Fold:
Amino acid sequence: MTGPSRASRRRVAHGQRWWFGLVALLLGAVLTLAPPPAERSPEGRSIQQAVAAQEAPELSARIKSLGRAFDGRVGIAIREVDEGWTVAFDGDNKFPQQSVSKLWVALAALDAVDKGQIRLGDTLVVRKDDLSIFHQPLRKHVGDNGYPVTVVELIRGAIAQSDNAANDVLVGHVGGQAAVQQILDRRRLKGVWASPPEKVMQTQIAGLDWKPEYSFARTFWDERETLSPEARAVNLDAYLADPYDAATPVGVVGALAHLKRGELLSPASTDLLLKIMGETETGPGRLPAGLGPGWTLAHKTGTGQVWGAVATGFNDVGIMTAPDGRSYAVAVMIAQTRRPVSERQELMAAVARAVVAHHDKKVSR
Structure:
């Protein structure tokens, strides 16, 4: 049996070259007309979108002005949740979170709920050995036989009341700091890190090791006062230089924007966490003081230790929502300052007012 003739093979080859040439021509035309692919940020949103501060030049200028004028180290970031642009002042450096870190513990707990690993109605018995330090309203309920509390009650206590005991029990229930960090990593949340339990972190900041008796009376304060001023200063400076509970303001608003868009949790868990954040009792003089009529705020505060005249970790972060439904993730994080509480709160309220003013001007155009 003979194969095709040489002439036939030439005709086939010619036809293939003609066809490949036509495909290459058409492909070249498509590539020429198509826009270049957008460079992506670590969060997956386009760099063009992430750096679109030109969308809000007056707001950007106002935030930078507020940051520069404040006497202390402050980071500020604002992200428009749907459009994705961000304006910031010192937004990419690390700041202490303090109780802002409770948000990520709640996120980990609700992620476990979504996976069916735990249930909101699961009851845990909180015993005296489970208690923490500083602010912990749960403590007054815990007797010799312990106190039963559900997972959802722990989440509400940790977020709305900033209860350190509720937070620390939750940390243990979801698998510890490493488990919380795994959730943040899996969700590719850049610029936020899981924190140690409050009782561990707060004693380390002071230069002490945790003891269960620190949960009661003024035992912790009394023992902290036995430390030399030099030791207190060295330990606090070390913490501020490299916080155990670090986050960047830009990272925080990025995570909050993901939460608001429903990209971190199920719809039910997203709604629950935002609702609880909207019930926050702490920090009424912070971001809430700058809200306009009809605006709402779902937020979490954080407040660190004070050494002499130096206050540390004074924060408020949250999602401001305008009457028309447009939302802005906002973070104001003060690492350290000597200014009084009233001035720290006024800075936060001024940032919130700047967001309201920007939105109102945009809507009126």
Observations:
- The mean pLDDT is 88.
